[in-house]
Every structure is written in structure tokens, then in C-alpha cells.
């Protein structure tokens, strides 16, 4: 996990953006790409750079589930919520992972080592039902495969 | 005008008006939970359904505009059912029963609960019970007995809401009560231009959030409370209104916190204030807006912290005495002092015109002296600067013109902080009238975000910068750094331009220079009409009223010099004048009239307890010579008396015959100054501009640079949050958010000196020292520190003894 970035660092990071509503999303993406999440201070810096209010930036950042406001866990399972995955039993996969990891969807472990997050369909529906482990696709899951995957992530021996 | 038919009745209405507004004005009830007059229609709650002949389905009356020949039905059975259905969706996720009970899940409608609440009275525990718009709407659409949970498996909310935000001293946000009508978000955006509120998340999880998602006080919210005024439920409420008491009396009066003098309604219970709301029909400048000071400073000190007993000093202690004894003793002391030498009278600028008139008469008739004020040196510096250029200090610019101006020039320390509601009007101009705003100021104020150009002079050189711009407009070549500003000024048109100047409240040299620069700029742009385009905002509410009755017109650089006795009328010399504490210690007779234990009260030989401005009847004369009335809205504490009464009785004890009440006093003022005749006829809630003609001359006089030594300059000014009376008593909670009990340091200086946020630092000029935590901020320019004029009881005044820009050394104190 990275420490909170400094104001100076953030100002330089978003210096290219201009007061324009169209620059809100690219600025948020750039910050998330760099730090893995959007620190609160970054929303203040983006707001100043785009001559708008932190509230507007926060509203945008919370509207999209892909933007995260807290550091991401070391290992993150993104569960695909797309229709193809769910038709092929994705909800069972989610329940299995939730119960094994003992975290709800959108939650993470107390030590911040692993978490479960909702993902959107990326089009690789031939792999359904699937999850991403730190953005790597793990497809064609069954409930038992999912439990094994979750145990690996959790670090428990079988 | 258009003619429409509503439920068979014919109604005349302006074409294009929102239908819901027309219906309401014609006595037809339509539920409207997200619509509110003054904000753009949002069409979020969907409860204002009506049937308009023509288009299919029901229409929303908030977004429907009146057209000629429109036929509207509001009361068919289908419509009533549709409205009920809409309201039931809102209620499905609104907490409406027994909010504070931990057993609520176990209760059923009709149960008698262990706390003796009948469970069907579900709003019983809510602070907005019987004054809640959602509750009233349920009644009106026929859903008062509606039980949203009957027959459903769930026992509580579908989407649990986060806990209430109670972390700040002023207001409370309880998302459980919120129905996401977004009125607060729109008020913050459209009325205040602050934009501190947003909708976060989406779908069921949508919520109102402040700033970047944290607590309210961590956002850019400035606690004006505009959101509270529009909230239909108990989601946003003031602390005292929510938890302490509901008002039983509402009094229309005038805010005493700055020279805008916003018109307010003060709600009180048993003679103590507990809520303030703006009075939209009073002062035309403030309209429906007030600021954090107006809304919460009625409560700046708890009633028990105000003076409730008159005292007389016996040896080292102050002994409580009756009112008659106190007045007799005060008169005796002052008469005795007058035999020894000069007796001065200092009048604070929150005294009314009538009270100042009595003080002036006491000074002239009993002591043969001129009444002065602790603000006197600053007032005289501004007056001299204006008279030299415009021939008068009464400037004719009308502040109601700011909001519609096309060009606004602001010369101030930080207008947002010193005269907040006028700053909102400048933002109105920028946002609604697309005005070009030019800010001249060393501090990065919130107005800079709205400015087309910002000229950032070094601390104390705002007036010089304005004068240099005036020269550039007249034809000189502007330096490239200010070329954009000069372009704006050259394009400024007469009649649609306002120059707003708020001179510094502490340093006479800086204040005079700011007024001079502003006058020069107005003269360069508009010649003989200069004064019609200029407004000079004094540091306190009734400075112009004081000057009108002759207070603080005459006087030296330090009103405390050479006195044998002193009468202090709700004034705070220790907060305004350098070295005042020592000077007061050298005066053997001090009679102080105040409602708080100010520096003067602590040193007084006799103290008369009074009841602050909200206990007074009288008149204030605001920045643009607008007269506004005060009515007694609160009772003085204990033995304390209204200030007018104390002055009248003291005058009688000194052998003078003074007017019996405020009305009679204003009559004397009107006889002395005919401009006050209309003010005499004013009734409460009205305001009137006194007649101020265009200034008789317009001659630019060069503005000299003020000398400054080597070091870090002190920039000071009025901050938004500190309460004046609490600060004069050096109350630790004078600034309850604890933002301005810090010394603000620029990022560059902080890096150079190794200072971080919250480090205790010290600023010193060798004689005076102030120690406080540091706050590192981009608000302050490199080479300056900002110290609030009210920090530590006005400690900054001690750095401003000479007429140069004060410089200090800044550092981390060396611990012994």
C-alpha cells in the first residue's frame, strides 16, 4: 500500500487538465492508474485544477463503481456481474467466494490483504462464469474451483 | 398573461411561469417536495402530478410552463391515487418511526411501547414533528395513516443510511431523514455558488454528500445554512433548533455582524434566541441569504457567559450592585475624572444610531469632548482618503446593483470572509449575469475562482495596486502581469460596473490606502460619476451610522491618549488599538457598558451590564447608507438592561436631559440630519436608502506606497467565523471551527522554515509576540502570514503601532 501522495505530486499529475467538464473522467482515471485508488486529497486537487468543486468530483467518482476511494487490497477478486456469467451460475460463484473469504461484495479483509469487488462484463463471455484476480481473468469457474481460488487467496491450506 | 382553466376555474397567470407556482398562488394545494420557489425545477420527487388536457398521461406541474388556454385538472381520483403511489415510494425508505428507539424492530403499529409512545405516532420523536413538509404532504395527499410496512417481511430500511454527521458546532446532517429531493444541493449551487453538496453513488445507494465525501466541516461548506432553509425534512437542521428548543416568538431585526446588515428573523424562547432565518423581504442586498455569523452568532456566547450583573470596583474585586447604585456610581466616577482631566467616550460600531446619538450627547454635553470609537483611526483614514478624492466620505454606490453588474472590481482583504453576503452577490453577477470580476487582493479568496482576472499584490499593497491600475486605464502602459485586468477595466461600462472596496479593519495606513486606490480607480473609469459606481464597506455594521451622528469624526491616531477617564460603550479598544491594554491600565477611571467581559470591562472601575444589539430597538446604517431597523428580539440576562436605557439613565445622573426612547432619539437625529427623516418612518422589516447624492468632486490623488521593513509581512482581516463579542472576551470558543485560531503560512515559507500544519509557531516584531498553531495554505502569498484580526482578542493590533506595513520574524518557538 502506498502512503497518501503529496499535494505537489498530485498537482503535477493533473497539471495537463483544463477547466472543462470533459476532463473530469480522464483526471480521475489518471489518478487511479497511478495510485490504484483516488485519495480524498486528490479530489480537492482535481477540483482546483478544473476550477470546480470537490463535491462535483466526488459525485462523479462515486457514480462509477470502477473508481475506488480506498487503497485496493493486495489481492482483489473482481466478480463479473455480466449477464452471460450470471446465466452460467455466476451468483453461486459469488456466494462461494463471499463465504470462503468472509467478506461481502464490495468489502475487504480487515488487514487489507484481499477483497471482493463487483466487475462489469469485459466481453470475454466464452470464459463465463469468470472473475478477475488482480485483473487477470480466471474463467470457466465451478463452485469448487471458486472455493479453491478463494482459499488460495486467503492463504488457507486445504 | 395567459388564461388557464384549473378544475373548472379560470385563472390569469404569466405565460411561461412554472404551473405549480401558479397553482399555489391561487390556493390550489399541490404536493411539491423537490420544487421550491427560487430554485430551478428538478422533477425529482414526482409528487406534483396534474392532468393537463392534451398530452398523454399525467404531467409534473413543476416543469410544466403555463400556456394560454391550458386546461388543468388537479383533483381527479386517478390523480390522487397516482400522488399517493409516488409518496409511498418516498416513504418506503424514509425513517419515520421511533427514530431513537433500539427496540423499534420489535414494535408493531398500535402497540403501546415501553417508552409510552404510541407506535402509530411515528413522527413523535423527530425534531421536525409538526413542521415537516413530508409530514404535511402525507396529510394533504390523504396518507396520514399510511403504514408502509404492513404485510411486508422487512422490518426496517432497505438501504441502511450512514450515521448522522454531528461533528461540527453549527448544523447537523442526518441522512436517515433525507428524501434526496436535492433542494440543498441546488440551493448550495444556485443560491450560494459554493457547490459543497453533491449526490454520491447511484440507484438505491444515492445519497447527499458534502465535499469529497467526508464530514461537513472538512468540505468547502461555509455554514451559511441556505440548505437548512430549503430542507423539507429534519435531514439538515441547526443544532439548537434540533435539540434545544423551538422558538415561541419570531422578531424581525437586523444582523449585527458586518456592514451589509442582513435582514433576519430571530426566533426566541423565554427571551433567549435559538434560531435565525433570513428575512427575504427586508434588506434588498441580502434578500434570502445570510452567512454563518448571522445564522449562529446570536449564540456566540452562552447566556450564562454574558454579563448579568452591574459591578463597581472596590480594591481588587468587582462587587455586584443594583442598577441604580451602578449608574449613580458610574456618574460620580466620571464627574470626578472630569475634574482631573479629559474624559473620553468610545462607542462600538454595533451600537445603534440612537445609542450612538446619546453617547455623543453625553460626550459633548457632560465632558465637552467628541465621542470616538476604537475603530476611529481606521474610520478617519478611510474618510480622509475619500474626502481628498471625492469631496465626501458618503459614497453613493448602491449595493443592490452588484448582482446585476457586468463588471465588478473587488478591492478587499477577503470579501468572502469579511462581508460574506455581498461576496455571494458578486458571485451572482459572475454566474448569472456573466460579469467579469476583477479581484485585487493578496489573499487567495474564494472569489478568485469566479474572477476573470486576479491581481495579487504584496500584503498591504492592495490600494497601491488599484491606483496603479487606475493610472494604466488613464493611458499608461500596464505591466504585462496586469494586462488582462486593464482590459477588463477598459471595457467596463458606466451604469453596469461596481467597484467594491472593503478597507482593512485594523491598520489605518492600509485601510486608507485601499479606499484611496478604489476611489482613484472609480475616478479613472467614470470621472464625475465615480461615486455612483463605488461602494466602500466599513469594518462593522453601524460605522456609517456612527459617523452620521458625529462619532469618530474628530480624534487623534490613538483615542486612548491623554485621558483621565473613559466611558466605553460596547466597544473593544483592546481588540483594535495597539498597546491598548497598557493604556487602559494607566487610566484611573473606566466605566464600561458591555454584555461580555471584554478587555475594557476587566479593567473597569464600574461596569454596566447591557443586553447586546439583539436586545435593542433602533436603527443601523449600512455600507451603502441603507437604514434598517432593529427590534428587541432577546431579553438582557439578569440585571442587565438595554444599552439605550443605560445611556439615558447615565445621562440623567450626569445632569443631562436625554430622549426617553429610541424613537425620540431618532427624531432628534432626523432634526439634526434631514436625511434620517425617512428612517424615522420605517417600520420593522423595511429598509430604506438614505439620500446620498453623487460626490461633488472627482480628483485622483496619487497613492503612495506604504513603507515596509525587511521580513515577513502580516496580512490581517476579518475572518468569517470568529464572533466579535466572544473574541473581545478572549473566549476560547470565539471561533468554533478552529480554523482561524491558527496563523496561516504560505506553502513556500513553510517549506523554507520547516513548518508543518499544527506546529506551534511564533511571530514577533521584537516587542509583541503571538504564538499559535500554524496552518499551511495556498491562501497566503509567499512572504506573508495571515493572522485573523480577531485572533487571541485582536492581538495582531499590537503589530500595527506605526503607519508602516508590519513585518515579523516567523519561527518555531525555542522552548526553555
Topology:
The complex is a heterodimer of chains A (158) and B (816).
Chain A: H1 7-13, H2 24-35, H3 40-49, H4 54-63, E1 75-80, H5 83-87, H6 90-101, E2 114-119, E3 131-133, E4 136-138, H7 143-154
Parallel strand pairs in A: 1-2
Antiparallel strand pairs in A: 1-3, 3-4
Chain B: E1 2-6, E2 9-13, H1 19-25, E3 49-52, E4 59-60, E5 71-73, H2 77-92, H3 133-140, E6 171-173, H4 183-191, E7 197-200, E8 207-210, H5 226-230, E9 236-238, H6 239-244, E10 249-254, E11 263-269, E12 272-278, H7 292-296, E13 310-314, E14 317-321, H8 323-340, E15 343-347, H9 353-367, H10 376-390, E16 407-412, H11 415-418, H12 420-432, E17 436-440, E18 453-455, H13 462-474, H14 483-491, E19 497-502, H15 508-526, E20 534-536, H16 543-548, E21 565-569, H17 573-576, H18 580-585, E22 589-594, H19 599-602, E23 606-609, E24 618-621, E25 626-630, H20 643-653, H21 662-672, H22 677-680, E26 687-689, E27 712-717, H23 724-728, E28 743-745, H24 747-753, E29 760-764, E30 769-776, E31 784-788, E32 807-811
Parallel strand pairs in B: 1-5, 15-21, 16-17, 16-19, 17-18, 19-20, 21-22, 22-23, 27-31, 28-30
Antiparallel strand pairs in B: 1-2, 3-4, 3-5, 6-9, 7-8, 10-11, 11-12, 13-14, 13-23, 24-25, 25-26, 27-32, 28-31, 29-30, 29-32
Helix pairs in contact in B: 8-20, 9-20, 9-21, 10-15, 13-15
Amino acid at each position: 500500500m502506498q502512503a497518501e501522495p503529496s499535494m505537489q505530486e498530485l498537482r503535477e499529475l493533473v497539471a495537463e487538465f483544463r477547466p472543462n467538464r470533459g476532463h473530469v473522467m480522464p483526471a480521475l482515471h489518471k489518478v487511479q492508474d497511478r495510485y490504484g485508488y483516488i485519495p480524498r486529497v486528490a479530489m480537492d486537487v482535481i477540483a482546483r485544477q478544473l476550477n470546480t468543486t470537490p463535491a462535483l468530483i466526488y459525485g462523479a467518482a462515486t457514480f462509477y463503481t470502477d473508481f475506488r476511494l480506498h487503497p485496493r487490497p493486495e489481492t482483489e477478486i473482481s466478480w463479473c456481474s455480466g449477464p452471460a456469467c450470471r446465466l452460467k451460475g455466476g451468483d453461486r460463484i459469488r456466494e462461494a467466494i463471499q463465504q470462503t473469504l468472509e467478506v461481502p461484495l464490495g468489502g475487504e479483509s480487515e488487514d487489507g490483504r484481499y477483497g471482493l469487488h463487483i466487475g462489469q462484463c469485459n466481453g470475454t463471455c466464452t470464459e463465463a462464469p469468470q472473475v478477475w484476480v488482480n485483473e487477470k481473468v480466471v474463467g470457466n469457474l465451478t463452485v469448487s474451483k471458486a472455493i479453491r481460488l478463494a482459499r488460495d487467496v486467503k492463504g488457507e491450506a486445504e | 398573461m395567459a388564461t388557464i382553466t384549473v378544475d373548472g376555474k379560470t385563472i390569469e397567470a404569466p405565460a411561461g411561469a412554472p404551473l405549480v407556482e401558479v397553482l399555489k398562488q391561487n390556493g390550489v394545494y399541490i404536493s411539491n417536495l423537490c420544487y421550491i420557489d427560487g430554485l430551478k425545477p428538478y422533477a425529482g420527487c414526482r409528487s406534483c402530478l396534474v392532468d393537463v388536457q392534451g398530452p398523454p398521461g399525467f404531467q409534473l406541474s413543476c416543469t410544466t410552463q403555463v400556456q394560454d388556454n391550458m386546461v388543468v385538472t388537479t383533483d381527479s381520483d386517478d390523480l390522487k391515487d397516482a400522488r399517493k403511489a409516488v409518496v409511498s415510494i418516498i416513504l418506503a425508505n424514509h425513517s419515520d418511526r421511533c427514530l431513537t428507539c433500539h427496540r423499534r424492530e420489535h414494535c408493531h403499529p398500535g402497540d403501546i411501547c415501553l417508552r409510552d409512545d404510541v407506535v402509530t405516532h411515528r413522527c413523535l420523536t423527530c425534531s421536525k414533528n409538526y413542521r415537516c413538509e413530508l409530514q404535511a404532504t402525507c396529510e394533504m395527499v390523504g396518507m396520514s395513516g399510511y403504514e408502509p410496512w404492513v404485510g411486508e417481511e422487512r422490518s426496517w430500511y432497505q438501504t441502511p443510511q450512514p450515521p448522522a454527521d454531528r461533528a461540527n458546532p453549527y448544523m447537523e446532517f442526518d441522512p436517515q431523514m433525507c428524501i434526496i429531493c436535492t433542494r440543498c444541493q441546488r440551493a448550495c449551487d444556485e443560491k450560494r455558488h459554493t457547490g459543497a453538496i453533491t449526490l454520491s453513488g447511484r440507484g438505491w445507494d444515492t445519497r447527499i454528500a458534502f465535499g469529497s465525501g467526508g464530514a461537513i466541516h472538512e468540505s468547502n461548506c461555509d455554514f451559511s445554512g441556505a440548505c437548512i432553509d430549503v430542507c423539507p425534512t429534519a435531514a439538515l437542521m441547526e443544532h439548537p433548533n434540533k435539540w434545544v428548543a423551538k422558538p415561541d416568538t419570531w422578531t424581525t431585526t437586523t444582523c449585527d455582524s458586518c456592514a451589509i446588515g442582513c435582514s433576519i428573523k430571530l426566533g426566541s424562547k423565554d427571551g433567549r434566541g435559538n434560531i435565525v432565518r433570513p428575512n427575504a423581504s427586508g434588506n434588498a442586498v441580502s434578500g434570502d441569504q445570510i452567512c454563518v455569523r448571522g445564522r449562529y452568532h446570536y449564540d456566540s456566547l452562552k447566556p450564562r457567559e454574558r454579563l448579568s450583573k452591574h459591578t463597581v470596583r472596590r480594591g481588587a474585586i468587582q462587587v455586584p450592585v443594583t442598577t441604580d447604585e451602578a449608574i449613580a456610581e458610574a456618574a460620580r466616577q466620571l464627574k470626578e475624572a472630569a475634574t482631573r482631566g479629559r474624559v473620553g467616550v468610545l462607542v462600538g460600531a454595533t451600537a445603534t444610531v440612537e445609542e450612538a446619538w446619546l453617547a455623543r450627547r453625553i460626550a459633548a454635553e457632560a465632558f465637552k469632548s467628541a465621542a470616538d470609537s476604537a475603530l476611529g483611526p481606521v474610520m478617519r483614514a478611510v474618510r480622509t482618503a475619500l474626502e481628498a478624492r471625492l469631496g465626501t466620505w458618503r459614497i453613493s454606490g448602491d449595493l443592490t446593483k452588484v448582482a446585476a453588474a457586468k463588471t465588478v472590481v473587488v478591492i478587499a482583504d477577503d470579501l468572502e470572509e469579511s462581508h460574506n453576503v455581498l461576496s455571494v452577490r458578486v458571485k451572482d453577477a459572475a454566474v448569472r449575469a456573466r460579469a467579469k470580476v476583477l479581484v485585487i487582493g493578496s489573499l487567495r479568496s474564494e472569489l478568485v475562482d469566479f474572477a476573470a482576472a486576479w491581481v495579487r499584490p504584496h500584503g498591504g499593497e492592495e490600494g497601491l495596486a488599484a491606483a496603479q491600475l487606475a493610472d494604466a486605464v488613464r493611458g499608461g502602459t500596464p505591466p504585462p502581469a496586469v494586462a488582462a485586468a486593464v482590459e477588463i477595466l477598459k471595457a467596463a461600462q458606466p451604469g453596469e460596473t461596481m467597484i467594491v472596496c472593503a478597507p482593512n479593519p485594523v491598520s489605518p495606513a492600509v485601510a486608507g490606502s485601499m479606499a484611496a486606490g478604489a476611489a482613484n480607480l472609480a475616478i479613472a473609469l467614470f470621472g464625475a460619476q465615480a461615486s455612483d459606481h463605488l461602494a466602500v464597506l466599513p469594518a462593522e455594521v453601524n460605522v456609517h451610522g456612527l459617523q452620521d451622528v458625529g462619532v469618530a469624526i474628530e480624534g487623534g491616531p490613538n483615542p486612548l491618549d491623554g485621558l483621565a477617564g473613559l466611558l466605553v460603550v460596547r466597544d473593544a479598544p483592546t481588540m483594535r488599538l495597539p498597546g491598548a491594554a497598557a493604556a487602559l491600565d494607566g487610566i484611573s477611571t473606566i466605566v464600561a457598558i458591555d454584555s461580555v467581559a471584554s478587555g475594557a470591562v476587566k479593567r473597569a472601575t464600574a461596569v454596566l451590564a447591557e443586553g447586546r444589539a439583539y436586545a435593542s430597538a433602533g436603527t443601523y446604517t449600512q455600507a451603502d447608507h441603507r437604514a434598517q431597523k432593529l427590534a428587541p428580539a432577546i431579553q438582557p440576562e439578569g440585571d442587565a438592561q438595554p444599552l439605550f436605557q443605560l445611556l439615558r439613565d447615565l445621562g440623567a445622573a450626569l445632569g443631562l436631559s436625554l430622549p426617553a426612547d429610541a424613537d425620540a432619539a431618532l427624531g432628534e437625529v432626523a432634526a439634526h440630519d434631514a436625511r434620517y427623516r425617512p428612517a424615522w418612518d420605517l417600520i420593522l422589516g423595511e429598509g430604506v436608502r438614505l439620500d446620498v447624492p453623487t460626490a461633488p468632486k472627482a480628483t485622483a490623488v496619487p497613492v503612495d506606497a506604504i513603507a515596509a521593513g525587511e521580513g515577513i509581512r502580516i496580512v490581517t482581516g476579518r475572518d468569517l467565523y470568529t464572533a466579535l463579542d466572544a473574541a473581545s472576551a478572549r473566549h476560547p470558543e470565539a471561533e468554533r471551527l478552529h480554523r482561524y485560531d491558527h496563523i496561516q503560512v504560505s506553502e513556500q515559507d513553510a517549506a523554507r522554515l520547516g513548518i508543518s500544519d499544527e506546529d506551534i509557531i511564533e511571530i514577533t516584531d521584537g516587542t509583541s509576540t503571538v504564538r499559535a498553531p500554524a496552518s499551511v495554505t495556498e491562501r497566503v502569498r509567499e512572504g506573508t502570514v495571515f493572522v485573523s484580526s480577531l485572533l487571541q482578542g485582536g492581538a495582531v493590533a499590537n503589530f500595527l503601532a506605526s503607519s508602516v506595513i508590519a513585518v515579523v520574524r516567523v519561527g518555531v518557538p525555542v522552548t526553555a
